[in-house]
Amino acid sequence: MKHLSKLLATSNSDLAWVLRLGLHGLRTQLLTALETSANDPGRESCEELLKEIDLLLKSNIPPSQISPTLSMENDSPWEDILEPIAAAQAEKSSQINTEIQVKPKKIKPEISQQEIIELKKLKLEKIAHSLISDRDISNYIGEYKICSKNDAQLWDEIQYLLLRVPEKIANIRQKKILKLAGEIGTIENKQNLKQLPFIRTEYLYPGLTGSVNAQGLLLSDQIDFDPRLKLVNSDAENVFLGKLVSTYLKFIDTDPCLHHALKSVDRFGVRSLQSESEKFKYVAALVERFQRVQLSSENRDPITALCAKLDLDEAIHSLVYLPPVERYSWWGKLQQEARRTLDIAVAKAREAGNQVQIRPLWGTYADIYTYSKDDLRLETGGIPGEVSACLRVYAKINDEILPGRVLFRAS
Domain check: are 42 and 61 in the same one? Predict the structure, then answer.
């Protein structure tokens, strides 16, 4: 009662206004219920509660602030504090009623009431919270907030987080998650799977059936390329890269946690791909760089082909999470696999008589910064003073130097 009185007495408060309306509504509902509950065992307590509500409202609402539409019957104890409605006051009353209808629109919570209700219904919510509060996991994903609105989405969200941590830890945690999921009436289902294009067939995580119905994920070499790529050259290298890029494009469409740090799109920071404009620009650049790789393989100039692949490699490695993923996570290993495709282009350039050096930039930032340019400093993730992600490798092709680019953790 103390806090109710304090809030009601707060001047110019929207929250006090909402509470006041709620108490009026509760009082009306209880009065109506009393009329039809003559023998209810809680009748006496209800009458006492009504008296307490009356005292609260009477002691905190000046008569000038009460709308006539909230008044009770003529025999109500509120009759003595309500102003009578004269004909001359009709317009004022209408204005007050209009304000009562419009005022709640000023209160715009970040999460709607319906979304809060839906979140409470999530059966996997406790499992998700146990994951993000696990110190072994939080060291790699940072401070994380659940964003899913249903259990099917939440299952994907849980699994995407595991793809960002070292695989040994992820495998142990996956077993715990499936055990906890079984305790709420779910069964692991390895048949209920979404399929995404990939360079090989790889089973990532299972689906669920029972109290929760959610799909798992299978990466398959039988699924066609993303149509945005428009494959025109089907040699083995282009097919390999096309499947890799198709995989990244599908993750961009499904994982809201992805960011980009591609210099040609925005050189000044790491941008979330939840922004439609950033997503459009980054995807356009990624697709365009893949197309240049295809074209360069047709003109048979090894230096042009190498430069095109260096640009594509930069675009792929500029697709990042915050904090950046662990190098020995599934995601980190996928990016390393993409980077190894540079070896073929380097070998071909050297066979043609060119002097080529490339160097991925890792380790202490103080040791590598002379090989890089336009680096970005992070305040989270990784080891202070060390490189968190190598966005572009350092390259020297004959006499031309192409600086690398990194994300590094501030000291």
Answer: yes
In this structure, the answer to whether residues 241 and 329 fall within a common structural domain is: yes
Please tell me the distance from the alpha carbon of residue 320 to that of residue 25, in angstroms, as a whole number.
51
Residue 198 belongs to some domain of the structure = no
**In this structure, is residue 147 part of a structural domain?**
yes
Q: Looking at the predicted structure, is the pLDDT value of residue 256 above 50?
A: yes
Calpha distance 191→188 (Å, rounded):
9
Interval 186-205: pLDDT, tens: 999 999 999 999 989 999 99
Q: Name the residue type at position 165.
A: V
Q: For residue 395, what are its two tokens?
A: 């390259």
Q: Which residue has the tokens 């299972």?
A: 206
81 vs 144: which has the higher pLDDT: 144
pTM (predicted TM-score): 0.70
Nearest to 160, CA basis, from 212, 222, 119, 216: 216
Residue 39 burial (CB count, 10 A): 5
What tens digit of pLDDT does each residue of 368-395 get? 999 999 999 999 888 999 999 999 999 9
Same domain membership, residue 129 and residue 44: no
**Residue 132 and residue 236 share a domain:** no
What does the alpha-carbon distance between residue 219 and residue 156 come to, in Å, rounded to a whole number? 14
